[in-house]
Amino acid sequence: MASSDDTKKYIEDLKKKIRKKTKVYCESKTDKNDVHDLSYGLKENNMYDYLDWAEKNAKIGADVPSFSSLSVPRRIIYRWVVKFLFKVLKVITINQRQFNLSVLDTFRCGIEDYNSLKLRFAEAKAQFNNSVMELELRLKQQNIEIGELKKTVDYLKYSLIQMEQRINNIPEVVGKGNKEAGKSNLMDLTGKVSHSLDSFYVFLEDNLRGRRDEIKKRLQVYLPIIKKSNIGLENSPVLDIGCGRGEWLELLKESGLHSKGLDLNKIMIRICKEQGLNVAEGEALSFLKDISGHSLGAVTCFHLIEHCGFEYLVKLLKEILRVLKPGGLVILETPNPDNILVGSRNFYLDPTHNKPLPSPLIKLILQSCGFSQVEIMYLNPYGDDAKIKKDDFETAKRFNNYFYGPQDYAAIGYKI
Question: What is the rounded CA–CA span in Å between residue 380 and residue 336?
Fold first, then answer.
């Protein structure tokens, strides 16, 4: 009995020693580079590294520690016990290991399928992006073509309007005689341009003057001047000579100010009336002579005076001074020839222009006609993207001012 107890005690002590030695052995063999440590290197390894690690761990159990530090009898006993335990564990866990390896194979196949799908998706995405770019280019080209077609349609529309007006005037021409009718149709600001060019000039305005919203935005700079002088009331209306498409009249109307437009171009007049604007057709000097003195708050002329000869301009300004109320004002906007690009090129985009007018000359003419407190406003410079970037140098500043400075200026004179 005592011998049996001793044997049991010996076996228990042996098990404890085996556990202790095995633990020391495992701790001495495991480091950061060991495949058994999954927590290390997660950021450095990819999914295939993790699968390799799992597969190696699934096969653990074949190696037996050497126990070289033990005495020979104990080493033999320990190795026999450990081998016996490994054989038992292999029998117990063989199905589990096969299951683990099957799961790993399934994961590996799944990852390969995922990568294949990912690659196919990237290729499909690239093809889709290329298709979108091609469609965008085609759409851009179609928009350009539509814009050109719209311009052509507009020109044809204006031409039809002009033909309709000329057909309606046939009885009048026959009644008055060709000579008298020709004289009537050839009158304009300079006395030289026929109404046969009305449709062309509207077409030119639409393509080279700028869009209506752009022109309205530019003209907003004059609203504070009008309102500050208490002009635009019912007893001090604004007369816009050469009103064109009516951008300024529309802006005044939206601001609740009283105004009237005047133009020679029959198509322009029709466009303004279709927008509900108060306009009249006529030549400026003749129209002003029919207005009583001291009856207008302001007279505005946007891009008009560059169409006039010198004598005509002086007569026009004197008539404007006569019809203005005391405290009334005149605004003359015209291209700025100080800008070299404007004076040498852009000015001549309009074939009906007479000649560029430098601001000192217009200021002097206004003063000689009786206007006081004449001011010059320089307007509409080119955007910064058109200028030389390094404008900290004096040469660059001057270059930007001469080539990309204000494209227009306004001369403003008051009647005392």
Answer: 10
User: Rounded to an integer, what distance in angstroms lies between the CA atom of residue 32 and that of residue 34?
Assistant: 6
Mean pLDDT score, 104-125: 79
Q: What are phi and psi of 293, to 5 degrees?
A: -65, 155
Q: List the one residue out of 366, 331, 355 whose CA is nearest residue 248.
A: 331
Residue 127, H or E segment: helix 72-168
Percent over 90 (pLDDT), the chain: 44
Task: Using the 3D structure, point to which of 125, 151, 184 is the last residue of a domain.
Answer: 125
- Residues 231 and 349 placed together within one structural domain of the fold: yes
How many CA atoms are closer than 13 Å to the CA of 27, on its beta-carbon side? 6
pLDDT of residue 395: 84
Instruction: State the Cα–Cα distance between residues 258 and 239, nearest whole angstrom.
Output: 9
Query: Of the residues 125, 157, 185, which one is the last residue of a structural domain?
Result: 125
In a domain, 177, yes or no: no
Number of domains in the chain: 2
Within 10 A of 286 (CB to CB), how many other CB atoms are there? 10
For the beta sheet containing 259-263, the strands, ordered from the edge strand earlier in sequence to the opposite edge, are 279-281, 259-263, 238-241, 296-302, 324-335, 406-414, 372-381
Question: pLDDT for 178-198, tens place per residue?
Answer: 444 333 333 444 444 456 778
At 171, phi and psi to the nearest 5?
Answer: -60, -40
Asked if 352 and 231 sit in the same domain, the reply is yes
State both tokens at 65: 């520690």
Tokens matching residue 146:
């539509």
Q: What would the pLDDT profile of 251-268 be if each residue is shown by its tens digit? A: 999 999 999 999 999 989
The answer to whether 111 touches 51, Cβ cutoff 8 Å, is yes
Are 354 and 216 contained in the same domain? yes
In a domain, 165, yes or no: no
The segment with the largest mean pLDDT, out of 41-45, 102-106, 195-199, 238-242, is 238-242
Q: Residue 373 sits in a domain of what CATH number?
A: 3.40.50.150
More confident call, 373 vs 80: 373
Token readout for 12 is 């228990």
Around Cβ 79, how many Cβ atoms within 10 Å? 15
